[in-house]
Amino acid sequence: MDFSKVIKEVGRGKNHARDLDRQTAFELYRAILAGEVPELELGGLLIAFRIKGEAEGEMLGFYQAMEERVMALQAPADMPPPIVIPSYNGARKQANLTPLLALALSRLDFPVVVHGVTEDPGRVTSAEIFRALDVPWQDSQAGAQSALVMGRQPVFIPIRLLCPALDGQLKLRWRMGVRNSAHTLAKLATPFHHHLHWRLASVSHPEYITRVGDFFKAINSSALLMNGTEGESYANPQRLSKIFGLYQGEQQLLLDPSLYPLAPLEALPADRDAAATACWTQACLRGEFALPQSIRLQLACCLAATGRSLSMAQGLDYVDGVFSRPRG
Questions:
Q1: Edge to edge, what strands does the sheet with 198-203 contain?
Q2: Which residues, in sequence order, are CB contacts of 214 under 8 Å at separation 6+?
Q3: Are residues 95 and 15 in the same domain?
Q4: Same domain for 292 and 181?
Q5: What is the mean pLDDT of residues 8-33?
Q6: Pairing of strands 222-227, 112-116
Q7: pLDDT higher than 70, residue 326
Q8: Are 52 and 210 in contact (CB under 8 A)?
Q9: Exposure pattern of 162-182 as b/e (b: 16+ CB <10 Å)?
Q10: 250-287 residue pLDDT tens
Q11: Residue partners of 23: CB distance under 8 A and separation at least 6
């Protein structure tokens, strides 16, 4: 591939750059992940796409190339469909509740896979909180598969195991100073290539809901889509947003915030650090604190989307029943 020719197309600036067709985008990102693009050209390409933004066809081509390199897992038999949660942002201003959401989903008998980075110099990662909760980081495909089948707790897979080539792209952020296409792609990654499963997907701005929804329709995949919390895919306890379900090419509104006014805010972690968040999470799961209403509603959405409840009301009843039981 003539990389200078590609740069000439995509590197003309926000208003004059041209989009690549899906096949060219696939071949380009396949070469990037294979380490076949020289450093100078790679830097130019990453900055060009950072300025231009990825078109739908480009994102589909990039995703196809990434999918070839993502570790595969088998969905456990005789269990609900797995739920996959990406975690690449962590906590910057408020405590990260992704581990609480993952543990709550496990208690509802969902197989749960969380994947993400293990460290971020400016944020508290889910990986750090999981470690404080004694939820192990998986270090092999066999170990991840075994933990998934056991189903006792979420399976955390570092991106360096899930897709080493993508991990290399993510780490370029610290060298270049800005994020690149890998940060969007990582949040779309899944180890379940040929099994029904649900991805929790978040966007940073409401206008991206349509764009990401169209992506999941194009790949015919199931997902729950919402505005995230500091880039994480858990429902914000301080501000509800709409949650959409995507299944077999159709998108429907599962959670309308206007129907569920937020109750007075319950106790949240006293600090955003991993130890404080883990301690609060354990207390919450023991019933010492109520589950945040936003998390209750997100859990009910998961039950409704996967067909385990017939309505949000029934899902909420089920969630409240499970989390009101004594834990001993």
A1: 155-158, 112-116, 83-87, 198-203, 222-227, 243-247, 250-255
A2: 56
A3: no
A4: yes
A5: 95
A6: unpaired
A7: no
A8: no
A9: bbebbbebbebeeeeeeebbb
A10: 999 999 999 998 877 777 888 899 999 999 999 999 99
A11: 61
Q: What confidence score (pLDDT) does residue 328 get?
A: 43
Residue 297 or 262, more confident: 297
Number of domains in the chain: 2
Pair (42, 87) in one structural domain: no
Q: What CA–CA distance (Å, rounded) separates 284 from 133?
A: 13
The CATH number of whichever domain residue 62 belongs to comes to 1.20.970.10
Average pLDDT over residues 281-308: 95
Residue 284 lies in a domain: yes
> 235 and 115, same structural domain?
yes
Whether residue 95 is found in the same domain as residue 220:
yes
Q: Is the pTM of this model over 0.85?
A: yes
Are 162 and 178 in contact by the 8 Å Cβ rule? The answer is: no
Query: Domain span at residue 50?
Result: 3-67
The two tokens of residue 248 are 């077999």
For residue 158, CA distances in Å to 22, 32, 112 come to 28, 21, 14
The yes-or-no verdict on residue 131 having pLDDT over 90 is yes
In this structure, are 35 and 160 located in the same domain?
no
Q: Please tell me the distance from the alpha carbon of residue 216 to that of residue 9, in angstroms, as a whole number.
A: 27
| Residue 78 included in any domain | no
Assigned token pair, 191: 């180890």
- CA 188 from centre of chain: 7
The mean of the pLDDT values for the chain is 94
Going by C-beta distance under 8 Å and a sequence separation of 6 or more, which residues neighbour residue 82? 75, 76, 110, 111, 112, 113, 148, 192, 195, 197, 198
pLDDT of 325: 57
pLDDT in tens, 64-74: 999 999 999 99
Pair (53, 106) in one structural domain? no
Q: What is the pLDDT of residues 157-209, one digit of tens each?
A: 999 999 999 999 999 999 999 999 999 999 999 999 988 999 999 998 878 89
Paired tokens of 315: 């899902």
